[in-house]
Amino acid sequence: MSRNAKINTLLLAIVAALAVLPLALGLGDHKEEPFTGADGEAETAITEIAPDYEPWFAPLYEPPSGEVESALFALQAALGAGVLAYYFGLRRGRRQGGARAAAARGARPPAAGAGDSPGAGA
Amino acid sequence: MHIAEGYLPPVHAAAWAAASAPFVIHGMRALTREVRANPESTLLLGAAGAFTFVLSALKIPSVTGSCSHPTGTGLGAILFRPPIMAVLGTITLLFQALLLAHGGLTTLGANVFSLAVVGPWAGFGVYVLLRRSGAPLMVAVFFGAFTADLSTYCVTSVQLALAFPDPGSGVVGALAKFGGIFAVTQIPLAVSEGLLTVLVMRLLVQSSKGELTRLGVLLQGGAEKEAAVR
């Protein structure tokens, strides 16, 4: 593994550890429902502070179940990951193509033909 | 940081929408200008938006025993400046409000203000300050992304505290309460976001040197190279 790849792997490993450690150490055990969303906890806090508050607007569309909701969240992440992967794949391909073309150009003696003759298999 | 639909009183909702609107409109102009002037940057713009899409969909466990998600706005703010991030962040929030019932239309203004306005500007500010004082690129990127993430959740806490002051201890008491829920939970996640942003920036340095130089992230001379690879 190159030094670069090692550093990248290490970065990912730390991120993974930061996510897994709270679970592994049972940091949610003091709660009735461990590891709920902070957004939901804020809603609970609002009802504690202002018990009379009624939300005055409801979402236009609500996923009918937790499964559908997590599917949509997965879709969101997949869309983003897909675009990112496309970007880096395209860049890598372009770079390799460019390097190959440069190598092919360099391998042939410049006097062999006027300009780049087509069909020069590498 | 998503304030749920209907959970801000109408006056607050309207005020935050009014505060966010100029930033988003200005951002749309900046985005159009950027795409017209540099059509080849569209792809990287898409990648920056995609980063926000991925990170804001990932709910990650934190030390407080609850889950929260990063924002992913620091990367785009560093690459393309905060105004453009105001637009990309708003798109993400709209997607979540309309399809996931996460956040909402009435609270969109407030959520845009925290995630797409304050986060990117705070992160970008820290990044620029560190760069000017001679910090290596990746150190500045880490703290920029860290700040963008954490400041977003601090703003959400302030927004809720202003709307729902504690009957006994007032706005300050409420701020402590919401801050405990959001900001403390967010600290390890902000570290994660900083590391992930450094990772993506490292990949960009390897793959898109020309683009980064044009955007001013890498310097022309290449003296940057050493600091960047670290």
From TrEMBL, chain A:
Residues 99-122 are annotated as: Disordered. GO terms for molecular function: cobalt ion transmembrane transporter activity. Residues 99-115 have a biased composition (Low complexity). It comes from the Bacteria. Its main location: membrane. The keyword Metal-binding does not apply. It is a multi-pass membrane protein. Pathway: Cofactor biosynthesis; adenosylcobalamin biosynthesis. The chain crosses the membrane at residues 71-90. The keyword Ribonucleoprotein does not apply. One of its GO terms (biological process) is cobalamin biosynthetic process. GO terms for cellular component: plasma membrane. InterPro entries: CbiN (IPR003705). It is found in: Cell membrane. Keywords: Cell membrane, Cobalamin biosynthesis, Cobalt, Cobalt transport, Ion transport, Membrane, Transmembrane, Transmembrane helix, Transport. Part of the energy-coupling factor (ECF) transporter complex CbiMNOQ involved in cobalt import. Belongs to the CbiN family. Forms an energy-coupling factor (ECF) transporter complex composed of an ATP-binding protein (A component, CbiO), a transmembrane protein (T component, CbiQ) and 2 possible substrate-capture proteins (S components, CbiM and CbiN) of unknown stoichimetry. HAMAP family: CbiN (MF_00330). This is Cobalt transport protein CbiN. It comes from Streptomyces pacificus.
TrEMBL record, chain B:
It is a multi-pass membrane protein. It is found in: Cell inner membrane; Cell membrane. It holds the Pfam family CbiM. GO terms for biological process: cobalamin biosynthetic process. Pathway: Cofactor biosynthesis; adenosylcobalamin biosynthesis. InterPro entries: CbiM, CbiM/NikMN. NCBIfam families: cbiM, PRK08319.1. Forms an energy-coupling factor (ECF) transporter complex composed of an ATP-binding protein (A component, CbiO), a transmembrane protein (T component, CbiQ) and 2 possible substrate-capture proteins (S components, CbiM and CbiN) of unknown stoichimetry. Belongs to the CbiM family. Part of the energy-coupling factor (ECF) transporter complex CbiMNOQ involved in cobalt import. This is Cobalt transport protein CbiM. It comes from Streptomyces pacificus. The lineage of its organism: Bacteria, Bacillati, Actinomycetota, Actinomycetes, Kitasatosporales.
